[in-house]
């Protein structure tokens, strides 16, 4: 097994190592939960103070024009587009992932009539399924949700399938679907495809345009490091934009928002998918995280992500700990996280957190460890597995305080 000294040597030669100094990370903490909430970029605090005191504080309402606040959803969207393989004018930052899903699913189902099935994967992230269920109810069940095993997606696409809704990287086990192959299969059978990139954007190379993807959504608070509750983004391919009717026809999606016309006319491009006034403070915070990611080559991020994951698996297996590997063993089949299974997973995570190693838990028995290559080090992985070994060897998890479930796991 790799020694800690060897892990230190890998850190010393790591081309991404200088990026860690741009994040605020508490001393003595190994943070392996960037797949749930990214760390704070140091630039974010200063940028927000400047925005609040100078732009809002001094320009007041004039900030909308003098500081171009209204262009932020498109401007930050285009920057995210560079991370997910999208040409300009196809990505917009707005609302939450759930709201964006509703916008795009509703438009896709309407466009694809009389096709009426939303096809998704078993065990998809609950909000994706809930939104599809809610849309079915809202439509008077003119559309319906169907889920199948991820391995059966292509075979399940038929003449009734309006849109295929998939998450590229599974939140529970980190397994990655083949975007190019499944997108091609959907198109061959006349269906649109909508990808959820919550665990992809900023963590691994995504090629929406090259894969001819129709629609996508994603969040800003994981690998994009936009902060808790950061706004989400949506992607609509250029070819679809004129034909996809916005389901939520808000005033900022109007062709002339400040004409204040009584009847809705959609904007010509991606802006038609705006609804209400954007949250400027949140958008600026997200832009800081995105700007930092854009300074690092995505191929280098992916290479280190795979190396961190492989190291974690090797060390856990070498320590002969009583865990089942929930994630794919081969790196190309997973995102930027490794998940383990254990009947006492929740208590083990709580014991690890007590030792300063932060991962998280997903029911019923999954321990999740996310790797953010811009601030996680090889020694972080070594130290995390050493702490995990100590927790298991001494059964530190077997305490009443670690068994009590908190509201956020």
From TrEMBL:
- Catalyzed reactions: L-kynurenine + H2O = anthranilate + L-alanine + H(+); 3-hydroxy-L-kynurenine + H2O = 3-hydroxyanthranilate + L-alanine + H(+)
UniProt keywords (A-Z) are: Hydrolase, Pyridine nucleotide biosynthesis, Pyridoxal phosphate
GO biological process: any one?
A: quinolinate biosynthetic process
Family annotation (InterPro entries): Kynureninase, PyrdxlP-dep_Trfase, PyrdxlP-dep_Trfase_major, PyrdxlP-dep_Trfase_small
N6-(pyridoxal phosphate)lysine found at: 222
What Gene3D superfamilies does the annotation carry? Aspartate Aminotransferase, domain 1, Type I PLP-dependent aspartate aminotransferase-like (Major domain)
- EC number, UniProt record: 3.7.1.3
Give the cofactors, semicolon-separated: pyridoxal 5'-phosphate
MF terms (GO), sorted A to Z: kynureninase activity; pyridoxal phosphate binding
Name one matching Pfam family.
KYNU_C
Record's function text: Catalyzes the cleavage of L-kynurenine (L-Kyn) and L-3-hydroxykynurenine (L-3OHKyn) into anthranilic acid (AA) and 3-hydroxyanthranilic acid (3-OHAA), respectively.
Q: Which NCBIfam families does this UniProt record tie to the protein?
A: kynureninase
The name of this protein is: Kynureninase
Report the source organism: Gloeobacter kilaueensis (strain ATCC BAA-2537 / CCAP 1431/1 / ULC 316 / JS1)
């Amino acid at each position: 097994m790799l020694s800690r000294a060897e892990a230190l040597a890998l850190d010393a030669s790591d081309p991404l190592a200088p990026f860690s100094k741009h994040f605020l990370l508490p001393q003595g903490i190994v943070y392996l939960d960037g797949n749930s909430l990214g760390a704070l970029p140091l630039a974010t605090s200063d940028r927000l103070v400047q925005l609040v005191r100078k732009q809002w504080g001094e320009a007041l309402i004039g900030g909308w024009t003098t500081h171009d606040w209204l262009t932020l959803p498109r401007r930050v969207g285009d920057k995210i587009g560079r991370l997910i393989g999208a040409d300009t004018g196809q990505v917009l930052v707005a609302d939450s992932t759930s709201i964006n899903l509703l916008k795009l699913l509703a438009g896709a189902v309407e466009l694809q009539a009389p096709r009426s099935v939303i096809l998704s994967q078993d065990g998809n992230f609950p909000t994706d399924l809930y939104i599809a269920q809610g849309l079915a109810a809202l439509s008077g069940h003119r559309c319906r949700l169907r889920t199948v095993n991820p391995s059966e997606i292509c075979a399940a696409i038929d003449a009734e399938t309006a849109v295929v809704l998939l998450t590229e990287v599974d939140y529970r086990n980190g397994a990655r679907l083949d975007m190019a192959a499944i997108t091609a299969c959907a198109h061959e059978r006349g269906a649109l495809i909508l990808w959820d990139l919550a665990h992809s954007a900023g963590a691994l190379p995504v090629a929406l345009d090259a894969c001819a993807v129709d629609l996508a959504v994603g969040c800003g608070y994981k690998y994009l490091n936009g902060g808790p509750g950061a706004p989400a983004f949506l992607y609509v391919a250029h070819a679809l934009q004129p034909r996809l009717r916005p389901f939520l026809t808000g005033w900022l999606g109007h062709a002339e928002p400040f004409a204040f016309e009584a009847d809705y006319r959609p904007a010509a491009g991606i802006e038609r998918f705006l609804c209400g006034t954007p949250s400027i403070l949140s958008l600026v915070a997200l832009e800081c995280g995105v700007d930092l990611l854009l300074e690092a080559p995505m191929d280098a991020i992916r290479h280190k992500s795979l190396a961190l994951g492989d190291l974690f698996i090797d060390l856990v297996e070498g320590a002969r700990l009583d865990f089942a590997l929930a994630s794919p063993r081969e790196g190309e089949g997973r995102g930027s996280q490794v998940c383990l299974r254990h009947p006492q997973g929740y208590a083990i995570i709580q014991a690890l957190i007590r030792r300063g190693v932060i991962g998280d838990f997903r029911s019923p028995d999954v321990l999740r460890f996310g790797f953010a290559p811009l601030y996680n080090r090889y020694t972080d992985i070594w130290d995390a597995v050493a702490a995990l070994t100590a927790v298991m060897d001494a059964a530190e998890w077997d305490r009443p305080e670690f068994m009590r479930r908190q509201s956020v796991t």
